[in-house]
Amino acid sequence: MSGEGAPKLDVQGAKDLKVAVVAAQWHTVVMDGLIAGAERALDEYGVTDRTLLRVPGSFELPVAAKVLAACEYDAIVALGVVIRGGTPHFDFVCEAATMGLTQVSVDSGIPVGFGLLTCDNEQQALDRAGLPDSKEDKGHEATTAALSTAVLLRGLAG
Ligand code: DLZ
């Protein structure tokens, strides 16, 4: 780990992309920060064709992403927060969401920004939520990655 943080990505030409943000509902304060970060990124890159879909929990992110991927979106951003509890549930939800989102992205060829926070405690999640006191802004980061990849892939397709 170099500790240098997220790379500076080229997002030029993203403004005409059609983008869906799918967001879980658990951990409201952190989720509000992640969604605000995603919307800030979409504003910065001039994306106006955008949809926000709220699903119950992070486990539901992959199925929603799969249906959105069939609806001609150019990029999808998946946002969720899973906080470790005293049971193995955390591991199951994290693994299902991560594997499911990966599968949707690879199978569809549509970039899915990975904005799923998997944290040991609430403070770790708050630190990454893009809130005024946060150290990182993972909603913005995941959105930037998805848009940058969509622009790149569109270029390859000609
Ligand atoms: C059940 C559950 C638990 C315990 N924790 C979280 C969590 O920290 N973050 C999250 O997004 N969702 C959680 N869920 C809900 C599951 O993702 C899912 O919505 C339910 O198991 C119903 O399918």
What's the SSE blueprint?
Layout: E1 19-23, H1 28-44, E2 50-54, H2 61-69, E3 75-83, H3 89-108, E4 112-119, H4 122-127, H5 138-157
Ligand DLZ is lined by residues 24, 26, 56-60, 80-83, 85, 89, 93.
Task: Label this structure with key terms.
158 residues; alpha/beta; Rossmann fold; 5 helices; 4 strands; binds ligand DLZ; 6,7-dimethyl-8-ribityllumazine synthase activity; transferase; LS
Plain-language structure description:
This protein is of the alpha/beta class and 158 residues long. The chain is 46% helix and 17% strand. Strands 2-1-3-4 form a four-stranded parallel beta sheet, with helices on both faces. Helix 1 (28-44) links the parallel strand 1 (19-23) and strand 2. The longest helix has 20 residues, at 89-108. Bound molecules: ligand DLZ. Ligand DLZ binds next to strand 3 and helix 3.
In short:
With 158 residues, the chain is α/β, with parallel strands linked by helices.
CATH level-four homologous superfamily name = Lumazine/riboflavin synthase
Amount of beta strand:
15-25%
Overall spatial form: globular
Helix/strand-derived class?
alpha/beta
Measured between the Cα atoms of the first and last residue, the distance is 35 Å
Could you report the average pLDDT, rounded to the nearest whole number? Answer: 95
- Largest beta-sheet characterization: 4 strands, parallel
